[in-house]
Inverse folding.
């Protein structure tokens, strides 16, 4: 693209580095910001840099937080003996939105993925093992994506945690509520038949 | 969404104000930035605020520029007597990419749109009229979108400019190169028959 201004070109280049944002979208976003008040743009810029410079990660669960220990980990209304293991903060938000979980979390910060060069040492796994080893934990729930990477991570974590006196579970896999049977893939459908649950249990939501 | 951090929530809210960016996309972009180096994020933030604070608009054509007079307006290789009127800087970039135009531009900064409350006074029209009135202009070319707003703007500008001794033209409308006839809308097809050009003229590109 032929930019009429170096400043414009720089700003577009920075936006185009964001995931899913190409040159044309970047230009559209930058021109939108150019049409805003200076204070508005200042607020945008400072919100981004402030976030990066001042953000904390909870020393217990590793979730993004404004405090050294996050609100969930420091709450006495949460069951501190049940730890739900998730990939990142988006999963915490998704599970919190269900209002079905009253325990605490542990955020790994990713999944084991040899293809992407992500090994166990790159994730917050040692802190999880230390947390379980320190006692007080009764159950660990794996809430990871049903992908190769998710399964690999569960396999590895199970090996590290199985000698502790805790129960280990994974969230249920099966057909989604509202899902039509004929559109479900064979693996999910096959597994959901093999792991069928008594009708009475399926009613308690 | 339940954010675990106020800083995170602020940054997501700022991103979600951008056009075409919803809460989920905003969160994805913000988490991407969180995983970058501090210097990288600093560069992103400062590129945006620097652009807004230091950008100039060419005093002749109103295009975004790093100088008081932009490179095109100050170039002696460009035909200063032919002014192409466009909506915004993206149109300048699109026309420059064709390498077919050697004249200069005038950027209106928008189109007349009573529905959106944009009147002639909100656009850089007076500076265009003054520019033509000051002499030296031989031709004005309207390169505006073929929409209601574009047509309204052309109608208004034509009224303001028609008493000057200049020729006024609009870019050709018709079927696009590579366009299949059966998929062209009726208005375009009908007009392209009515405004047909001699075969010899159609060959000179």
């Amino acid at each position: 693209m032929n930019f009429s201004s170096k400043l414009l070109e720089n700003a577009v280049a920075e936006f185009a580095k964001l995931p899913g944002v190409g040159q044309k979208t970047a230009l559209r976003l930058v021109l939108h910001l150019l049409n805003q008040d200076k204070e508005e743009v200042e607020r945008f810029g400072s919100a981004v840099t402030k976030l990066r410079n001042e953000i904390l990660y909870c020393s217990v669960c590793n979730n993004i937080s404004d405090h050294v220990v996050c609100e969930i980990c420091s709450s006495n209304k949460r069951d501190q003996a049940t730890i739900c293991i998730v990939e990142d903060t988006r999963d915490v938000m998704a599970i919190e939105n269900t209002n079905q979980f009253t325990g605490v979390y542990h955020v790994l910060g990713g999944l084991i993925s040899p293809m992407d060069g992500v090994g166990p040492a790159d994730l917050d796994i040692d802190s999880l093992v230390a947390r379980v080893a320190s006692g007080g934990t009764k159950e660990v729930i794996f809430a990871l994506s049903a992908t190769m990477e998710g399964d690999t991570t569960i396999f590895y974590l199970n090996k590290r945690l199985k000698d502790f006196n805790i129960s280990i579970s994974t969230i249920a896999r099966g057909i989604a509520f509202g899902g039509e049977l004929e559109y479900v893939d064979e693996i999910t459908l096959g597994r959901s038949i093999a792991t069928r649950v008594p009708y009475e249990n399926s009613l308690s939501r």
Observations:
- The longest helix of chain B spans residues 38-54.
- Chain B touches chain A through 59 residues (CB under 8 Å).
- The beta strands of chain B are 56-57, 64-65, 79-86, 103-107, 139-142, 167-170.
- The longest strand of chain B covers residues 79-86.
